[in-house]
Amino acid sequence: MKYLMLGAAALAIAACSQETATEPAETPTDAMAAGDAEDGMNGEEHDAMDHGDMSASEKLDAVLDAQPDEIKARYEYRHPKETLEFFGVEPGMTVVDILPGEPGWYGEILIPYLGPDGTLIGADYSVEMWGEFGGFANEEFLENKKSFNEDYVAAVEAAGGEDGADAAAFQFGSLPAELEGTADVVLMMRAAHHFNRFNDGAYFTEALEDINAVLKPGGIVGVVQHRAQEDMPDDWAVGNAGYVKQSHIVSLFEDAGFELVESSEINANPADRPTAEDVVWRLPPSLGTSRDNPELKAEMEAIGESDRMTLKFKKPE
């Protein structure tokens, strides 16, 4: 594999907890709650996979079948095959994974699926934005973020072996010129609410500028995001509870010049109907409000993971 060390970025692992009035102090933010830091296959296991002359769909099936149980446990709620195919991700592409972990839940799937002709680019929040979280985001934590590029590329190397995707990394607000116009697809998996919740959405605006810059003309942005009901209060749906309204996400992307190609209910969960007192981290896999309450935990497990919008946007040709 070849590796691109680009820019001064930061992220150790997407493992953080947000201390707010609406979120339990020990509850991870969505990046880790979604399982993006779960262990996956090592490089030797990836190398042992022989995909031969499989079609893209067959290769994805083989990659998904080879994942460890802790990753497979989330298939019921995350529908990775249907989701990646809906966004048009194929072997050999260059794909940006936003807030990925090292290499992350989707990263463990994408590394062997994209293969040696593909590239996986990890994109993290800026150190400035991480500082907005407070609490866990202390001086040591933020200092560790400065090695994100190296840490992410090393994690992809360890997970991918000889047959995995090449790797690069950057942090929003500091996209290297070398990466501009290189990506076929950008994946924003359960990361939009943090962009939206801080600094009156200015971080989202910055991110959309970098997304537009990193994409090829006609490139795709795939968004999967915890979905607030449209009749919920706007101040609750800003993202502090993890939920954002679908109409708001669509508006932000369209205002930035992207075209909404299609929406899907692949990741919908009608059982998740939060009130204004609820946060997304009450649900699996975090279960942040029921660690010491077996009855409540069972109730949250019965709901399952969050109701999610799945949106496919296109950069103009």
Description:
- With 317 residues, this protein is α/β, with parallel strands linked by helices.
- 34% of the residues lie in helices and 17% in strands.
- Strands 1, 2, 3, 4, 5, 6, 7 and 8 form an eight-stranded mixed beta sheet that branches.
- The longest helix has 13 residues.
- The two termini are 31 Å apart.
- The N terminus is likely disordered.
The gyration radius over C-alpha positions equals: 18 Å
Percent in strands: 15-25%
Helix-strand category: alpha/beta
What general form does the structure show? globular
Query: Tell me about the biggest sheet?
Result: 8 strands, mixed
- Euclidean distance between termini CA atoms: 31 Å
Number of helices, where a helix is a run of at least 4 consecutive DSSP H or I residues: 14
Low-confidence segments: 1-41
Order of helices and strands: HHHHHHEHEHHHEEHHEEHEHE
- Can you count the beta strands? 8
Q: Which percent range fits the helix content?
A: 25-40%
* Whole-number mean pLDDT: 87
In short:
The chain is of the alpha/beta class.
